[in-house]
Amino acid sequence: MTYNFLEEFPLSRMRRSRLTPQIRNLVAENNLNINNLILPLFVCEGSNIKDEITNLPLVFRYSIDNLLKLLEQVVSLGINAIMLFPVIDDSKKDEIASEAINPNNLICRAIRAIKIAFPDIIIIADVALDPYNITGHDGIIDDRQLVLNDETIDILVKQSLIQSWAGCDFIAPSDMMDGRIIAIRKALDHNNLKNTSIISYSAKYASNFYGPFRDAVGSRSSLKGNKKNYQMDFANSDEALREIAMDIKEGADAIIVKPALPYLDIISRAKNSFPIPIFAYQVSGEHSMIYFAAKNNAFDFISSYYESLLSIKRAGARAIITYLAIDIAIFLKNNQ
Ligand code: PBG
Questions:
Q1: Which of 203, 205, 275, 280 has its CA at 20 to 30 Å from residue 69's CA atom?
Q2: Is 204 known to be catalytic?
Q3: Where does residue 267 rank: exposed (0-12), middle (13-18), buried (19+ CB within 10 A)?
Q4: Which residues make Cβ contacts (< 8 Å) with residue 138, sequence separation at least 6?
Q5: Hey, what CATH topology would domain 33-334 get?
């Protein structure tokens, strides 16, 4: 935006538009809406389980029965989209992530149960092998510990198909293999799953902020090395635009930038470069950072959380994946 006139005091007084809450709301350029929130959820085996997660306060692992109970509240609050992550028992993990392509695995059973009880909720299923792998990596590795690209894609395609058959609405590949979007799109179309959307984690960085998530799915202690040979180097931003451009060409319906708050520049560049919905993932470490600082009285929890979400919107995100979606939805209902 460019100005063709100069504003000058005292004719212009910026503070006039900040005078009352009503005026501030009237002129607000951005806002946060319940429709823009996506709630990530961790699902585990068993019944009546609600387990705390180390370093991810306020977030729990739920067995399917308890997840269904929680979803009643989620739906009644008006949250329309959830993202599911499975916590796989160690006994089912191996080097080729076999459980990832078992049509009766935990995630597929969860998807089916949720779709029966809540047919309208949008279910987003993650595609990556780390919850299923003894190595903790998103793909299968060679003897130099590098993730094999094309061999991994073959498994990801099967994983996408079984999750779509189970009834998920969106497939979200978070693995960062090259060429997986087109491979998945073709397989979905070939199997008459033309209405299954793909949200691609196009710009996913090799971030330290994923630590608590790895505690949640139990991949942290087993992770050998790091994920820098497939996830993006956080020194880069032009590269993110190349990743996004390729994924759009390969058939992505929306793209994700992840993490969110330390990567607002990437969200903003993506928004200005591509006419496609940009989603942002406020990751586990961002959540915990705000929680622990607020717990030590550095600032107020919910208002600083809200500020960080609104900043992500302002940068250009259409929707935000956030662990606090329920509390934020309640906050929005009470404050708007
Ligand atoms: C793995 C995956 C990760 C997250 C979502 N999917 C972790 C990783 O890449 O190691 C992180 C989400 C978070 O930290 O909240 N495919």
A1: 280
A2: yes
A3: buried
A4: 128, 129, 130, 147, 152, 174, 175, 176, 177, 227, 230
A5: TIM Barrel (3.20.20)
Q: Would the pLDDT of 1 be above 80? A: no
Percent of the chain clearing pLDDT 70 (strictly above): 99
Q: For the chain, give every domain's residue range.
A: 33-334
Length of the chain counted residue by residue: 336
Q: Is the CB of 210 under 6 A from ligand 1?
A: yes
Q: Is the CB of 128 under 6 A from ligand 1?
A: yes
Tokens 């600083």 sit on residue: 304
End-to-end CA distance of the chain: 29
Is the four-CA dihedral 268, 270, 272, 275 of positive or negative sign? negative
Instruction: Pick the atom of ligand 1 nearest to 223's CA.
Output: 10
CB atoms within 10 A of CB 54: 10
Nearest in space to 135 (alpha carbons), one of 17, 230, 67, 66: 230
Q: What is the pTM of this model?
A: 0.97
Catalytic residue status for 271: no
pLDDT, tens digit, 9 for 90 and up, residues 31-41: 999 999 999 99
284 CB within 6 A, ligand 1: yes
